[in-house]
Write a structure and sequence with these properties.
The chain is mainly β. Helix content is 2%, strand content 51%.
Amino acid sequence: MDLTDVDGRLFFTADDGAGERGLWRADNTGTTAVKLLDFPYNYGSDGRYDDHGYRALTDVGGTLFFITKTDRTDALWRSDGTKGGTVRIQRFDDLDSRGGENGPSNMAAVGDTLYFTADDGDLWKSDGSKAGTVFVKHIGTGGDENYYYGPTELTSVGDTLYFVGDDRTGSGSEELWRSDGTAAGTVVVKDIYPGADFHEGPSRLTVVGDTLYFTADDGVHGRELWTSDGTDAGTVMVEDIVPGAESGSPSTLTELGGTLFFGVHDPEDESRDLWTSDGTAAGTSLVKDFDVDGEGQGYLPRIVVAGDRMFFFVGVAGGVELWTSDGTEAGTTLVQGFPLGWNSGGPGELTAVGDTLYFYIGGYSVAGADLWRSDGTAAGTVLVEHIDSPTYGGPGALTASGGKLFFAVDDSAHGNELWVSDGTGPGTHLVRDIDPSVMFVSRGARTGAANATARVPVTVYSSGTVKVAPARMGGVRKLRQEIVFDGNWYWDVATLTLDLTRAARRELRRTGRVEIGARFTYTSCAGPIETEKRTYTLKKRR
């Protein structure tokens, strides 16, 4: 389930239980959700719906852009939050001659314009209309393109797009590019590592004000912090934080109050410390050393800003600690520790809603998902709700929208569904049981051994009993089978082997194909009963 906020409106993807995944929108109260579009069918080889039928929900100037995908065609869409305003912009052939993906990907907004990549190396842009969806420039290699799949890290700085792409020398290395939306204005900014072969280019592109920061390796100083104003001369290393060829490997680049903060690898104790920079060597300094008891267990997997403070977790022996910082050493303080067991999930999904941080720690209390919130104090760091879950995982896709927190979670009773929280237990609840089903029967079947059976995959969300009976044209014998749901994920898949009738087997042998029909009734141990009818065309096995 993907969630994206667009001007206070929550868009998300979900399966309605009929095997159809689509685009939905929830209202700001968190009490209703409406479906805007059924995504095109995209069934895998086993006949089950392929979840990769959509990609990249992206806010572009208050309009949602997204991609649908099938085996043959990708399409770019936009939506204003209404069914009538959810329209396809343009189709793209999905596969190229190498079997690679040609469809749109790597979407990013620059003002009211969407930029994206397609055709394994082409930069495109769109204003939301078919006529305004145009090719900008091919960013392929100067040599063999079999390894290359186009620009990445598309990032907006003002009205300019920056990205990482092949240097087009045939070396296989990547460099920093910029684009103004024209072919002539799409150029390499700087060759940071001249003469390198198959060198990983800049990464972690991050904007602070009108300045671009990123990490790069010039072949001399290791991977360190760099900045760029879009010119060759203005693209420079900020500071060799870990001197020499060893890398400081800056990570989790984050902006707070117009200043950059990031983590740096400390080779002396193998910890990751908090640093800050104003873009100059003199203004780049250590904020806090997180060498924990000399064991080098400190880490900052992600920094999240909530209000005027940063939040992050630091690893310690036996667990993790939540810290907060205002950007100064004195203002970087421990909030609360969390002991973790071998089966604990998280912490994860750090998300800000206004001045409040939300996160989950799975299995912290008992098996299930614990949703927490924090205001940066120990007293204000509290468990919001424990949600019984069939796994030790936690809520996913935490997203702020309309002043509330939305997320996806499986509470054992409803499957993986959309929830909302206002930060209190009573205010944390299911938005809508979009998929009330307990079973999904594949729309495809395979001919079994000796051309005497049909093999049909079924997806279940709890243990129960499935009964199969002939329906429509028939051709199958009755079946009763127990299915045990192991609870290791949100669903289990079982394959039913249906015996064909004598007449169906004879038809299959004589003509090479036969149509069969069956009614599947699933009685869940949790109570619900669901019935689905399917017809299949079987082909004779050789």
